[in-house]
Amino acid sequence: MDKKKLFLICLFTGFLGGHYFAINKYKRGILYLFTAGLLGFGWFYDLIRIAMSGDFAMVIEEKERLARKQKEKIMIQKKLEQEKINEYQKEGVPYCPRCHSTHLTAQKKGFGVGKAATGALLIGPYGLLAGGIGSRKIELTCLNCGYRFKIGEKR
Ligand SMILES: [Zn+2]
């Protein structure tokens, strides 16, 4: 697509997404069609981008590629996180419900502050199995995000 031609298309039909239809980006074209070129801002922005960039279609292509890559990365992270949680649950390892860290401190209920700081014990990954806690409720504090929660209510 010739740059000058695309610029003119954008200038006259940009608020209808014309320049996106011209480079076969129909999704964006439709978005522009229904939002009047993102209320004119997208239209204006694209006019500048078409004027400034060597190949507007390539710029959009690259942007979409990066967005896809980012999305993929997040999906993989989510999957790994879920696998980690499944593993924790299987092994009975306590983990923070908010950030899923296993870096927790435990404080037995009833302990006061001060001297009772000795009552706090540090739990590393896999260091404390839920079965070993007994039936007593233990309040855990996540060292990663500071979230407080209780475990040991069952069993
Ligand atoms: Zn946490």
Automatic annotation (TrEMBL):
Signal peptide interval: none
Protein name per Swiss-Prot or TrEMBL: TM2 domain-containing protein
Q: Which residues form the TM2 domain?
A: 7-48
Q: Where in the cell is it found?
A: Membrane
The main place the protein resides is membrane
GO-annotated cellular components:
membrane
Membrane-spanning residues where? 31-48
Organism superkingdom: Bacteria
Native organism is Caloramator proteoclasticus DSM 10124
Keywords assigned by UniProt? Membrane, Transmembrane, Transmembrane helix
Q: How does it sit in the membrane?
A: Multi-pass membrane protein
